[in-house]
Amino acid sequence: MKSNPLANIVREQKAGKQTGLYSICSANSFVIEASIMQAVRDNSIACIEATSNQVDQFGGYTGMKPADFAAYVKNIAKNFGLPEDRLLLGGDHLGPNTWRKENSRPAMEKACDLMSAYAKAGFSKLHLDASMKCADDNGHAPAPEIAAERAAKLCAAAESAWDSSRNTLPAYIVGTEVPTPGGTALGHDKIHITSAADVAETVNEIHEAFIKKRLLDAWERVHAVVVQPGVEFGDASVDIYQPQKAAGLAAFMEKQPNLVFEAHSTDFQPGSSLEQLVRNHFAVLKVGPWLTFAFREALFSLEKIEKEIFFGKGNIKLSELETTLESSMLKNPVYWKNYYSGSESEIAHKRKYSFSDRCRYYWPLPELEQAIALLLNNLSGREIPLSLLDKQLPFQAELIRKGAILPGPRALIHSKIMEVTSLYSKACGFSN
Fold first, then answer.
1. Is residue 426 part of a domain?
2. Is residue 428, in this structure, part of any structural domain at all?
3. What percent of the chain has pLDDT over 90?
4. Tens of pLDDT along 277-286?
5. Which letter, b or e, does each residue of 157-194 get, where b requires 16 or more Cβ atoms within 10 Å of its Cβ?
6. Does the N-terminal or the C-terminal CB of the chain have fewer CB atoms within 10 Å?
């Protein structure tokens, strides 16, 4: 039986190599395509994750169940030439989050069913997240021993559901100091960096819970713990990693033979900070909004090019993509209203340009899919003047000059997203 790719990352980390794994948390097809393309280019692993609010046993907000998401990603990987054994599917925040308004017993029953569905679908990187409070937790996050007990229940559900005929076993991520799935409402407060003592307590509590559940074999496959190393982003600001503030965490992990850290919210960090995170044993780097942010940047740039080329030509219907996005967000504000504050003009700016990128929830809407399709159709098969590309997508214009990419709109979008994935690839030792 093959080792789980995450186990291999841990082994190389402990051997002193600058090795890591970046995890793509997105259901956006362009993002997944670009990430697969990056892995093909680097001859590396592609780790694609679904979050519990995106994909669950009832469909989540994407309408996909775990088996649907797995098939969706595998089909993209096949189409872009990535062998299935270099695709790692992950499940993020798997626990009672969706049902936290219910009492803990029914919420955990649904959470275990969720975990089983992910395991049955072949997701082999599973985040056991029982950190959120349920209705009967008296208004507070569950005590460490209770959260640990719930995490062990989730693991037991995964172990029972796992198909033993698969050629690898699941690897587990634990940790209670995790950001809210989907992002924190109304920006972010002053960051509390996890202490080494808190990590040690978390690991010990979960270890004890696994022993009680007779999950010793599974414990050997707990390979990462989620902590807060001091990286976060808000609407218009980014907290850059400062290694000296997380020195205690790095020192703690030096002594752990089978563990690394997983860092969430690493979006918008400089490449040098990503490399330093991996060097300090934050070997799993999660990224999501930065990729859909780049996707949105590419689309807005392409729409400006579309208007420059076709404005005033009555026989060409323009995509009106930006206008359609704004209309869709105003019509159904559920995904941004509780996350943005300020004057009307400030909120309007955030709807489009915030780092938290709440507009990512709207791209699957039929009217926006139609606008994107029209934009791509208008620009496909036509020569886009390099002078326009120089203005709107200068990095891609230079790549076209070098013959590194084709000038079509899909290639331009993929390239814009790969500006981000390439930073993660380099930080994790996949490329120079």
1. no
2. no
3. 90
4. 999 999 999 9
5. bbbebbeeeeebbbbbbbbbbbeebbbeeebbeeeebb
6. C
